[in-house]
Amino acid sequence: MKKINVLDTTLRDGEQTPGVSLTLNEKLRIADKLDRIRVNVIEAGSAITSNGEKEAIKSIVKEGYNAEIASFARIVKDDVDAALDCDVDSVHLVVPTSDLHIKEKLKKTRNDVFNQAITMVEYCVDHGLIVELSAEDGSRSDIEFLKKIFHAGVDVGVNRICLCDTVGILTPEKAYDFYSNLSDLTVPFSVHCHNDFGLAVANTIAGIRAGASQFHCTVNGIGERAGNASLEEIVVSLNTLYNDYSTDIQIDQLYNTSKLVSRLTGVYLQPNKAIVGENAFAHESGIHADGVIKNASTYEPIMPEILGRKRKFIMGKHIGVKGLKQRLDDLNIKYNKNQCNEIFNKIKYLGDLGKLITDVDLQAIADEVLEIEEEKKITLKELSIVSGNKVIPTASVKLEINKSDVLIADVGVGPVDAAIGAVKKGISEFANIDLVEYHVDAITGGTDALIDVILKLKLDDEIISARSTQPDIINASVEAYLSGANRLLENREK
Ligand code: MN
To answer: Is the pLDDT score of 176 beyond 90?
Structure first.
């Protein structure tokens, strides 16, 4: 089994994602997580970029992580000096090697670039830096020129080589041939792929098969344009589909790492993203859900638990009887065959109208079919919010609980937090209901959009989902919370 090292560049190439700019603290939190999942090299940024960037790299170095900490540097003395100032372990020293970049971008000749690169490698080596010499736009460069620079670099002390597919134009076949050209080097080499054609992960794996012992990647595949090769996809593919390679990465931490990076960068994931997308382990179709209940491997190539995740069954128009029965059993709802059919038909009808069914909806449908009269324990009578600039967001609510009024207020980080906090406090005498998940979507585009709040609540061992759709985000959140809370209290009594 060949050990493959991971150089994560979420904090450098990933931060170059349009619209992403991380604070020092955010960079530290991501670096900390990367070190904990056992990334081998963290490219912490480019020290020359700004004072803030320099401070962030310095702070990351000071943490004394296990991972090697690298700074990006051009073949420019100021860049390397800035990296040295941060006391990093290594530099990712990047040389543009394609004629297009040399002539059009740098306005130089191959010879200039060659000499400048070797001079800077020597400078780095003299100052005790580990050097990864990297060919920018390598995949559009003359292979003889690349070999010339790489061999000369190795002669003066380069520790690792990297070839970048800067504009993502390789295919897996070309990547394999391209990286095979480096097999006569006496130092290890890295693959660095971009995702312009959605091939970054496939190309990276082809490069590994061609002999690379390290790959560059970012969490969630974030990066310029269509992004970089995604850490989680490569790691899990190597782990599951390629038996000859292994990495140090803690796979069960990949999902929460993805969540952290998505939250801090504000780059949200498409739901069908491999490995870490919200739908990666969700089943709605009746046939699939039935298969997964009998034996998960029927429609799941990886067990979600391995990634620290759980499978989800979504109720909508594709639901099957088996999936429905499973959920009814989970919710402790007793039914006979006819009642089950009736519930099933109602869900299909709502599904055809485009509605997804939460647990609270399902229980309401079941109550209707089973002719159970429900009386709401808690109703909202008044809600008022104070929020603004230099004001602590405060909510006061009047709830009617078991026929008597409860008046309570709370503060929070924002109006929703304050409102949920107040409601929670108001009902705390009856039950301690925890909010375990909160998800909000604006259904239409404008500020007058309908807001869809879906949340999960927990009471003792029971977790249920509830939803509310309204134009006001605070009302929607409180209504969803109360409908879930009413259900949980009802279920506890049963
Ligand atoms: Mn790149």
So the answer is: yes
CA–CA gap between residue 190 and residue 92 (Å, rounded): 11
Burial label, 197 (beta-carbon count in 10 A; 0-12, 13-18, 19+):
middle
Q: Is residue 445 scored above 70 in pLDDT? A: no
Angle between helices 77-85 and 110-126 (to 10 degrees): 20
Distance CA(449)–CA(102), nearest Å, equals: 49
Q: What is the mean pLDDT of the chain?
A: 92
Indicate the fold that domain 2-265 takes in CATH: TIM Barrel (3.20.20)
**How far does residue 112's CA lie from ligand 1's centre (Å)?**
23
Sign of the alpha-carbon torsion through 196, 197, 202, 203: negative
Q: Could you tell me the distance, in angstroms and rounded to a whole number, from the CA of residue 166 to the centre of ligand 1?
A: 5
Q: Would the CATH topology of 2-265 be identical to that of 378-493?
A: no
Which residue type does 165 have? D
Compute the distance from residue 181 Cα to the ligand 1 centre, in Å: 20
Report pTM: 0.78
Distance CA 416, CA 438 (A): 11
Q: How far apart are CA 356 and CA 466, in angstroms?
A: 11
Residue with tokens 């229980």: 363
Domain assignments of the chain as residue spans, ordered by start: 2-265, 282-371, 378-493
CA of 373 to the centre of ligand 1 (A): 61
Helix (H, G, I), strand (E, B) or coil at 339: helix
Q: How far is the C-alpha of 216 from the C-alpha of 136, rounded, in Å?
A: 13
Specify the CATH superfamily of domain 378-493. Answer: Alpha-isopropylmalate synthase LeuA, regulatory domain (3.30.160.270)
> H/E element holding 397?
strand 394-401
CA distances (Å), 352 to each of 51, 325, 348, 360, in order?
Answer: 56, 20, 6, 19
Q: First vs last Cα of the chain: how many Å apart? A: 55
Residues 261-283 have pLDDT tens digits of 998 998 988 889 999 998 888 88
Report pLDDT for 238.
97
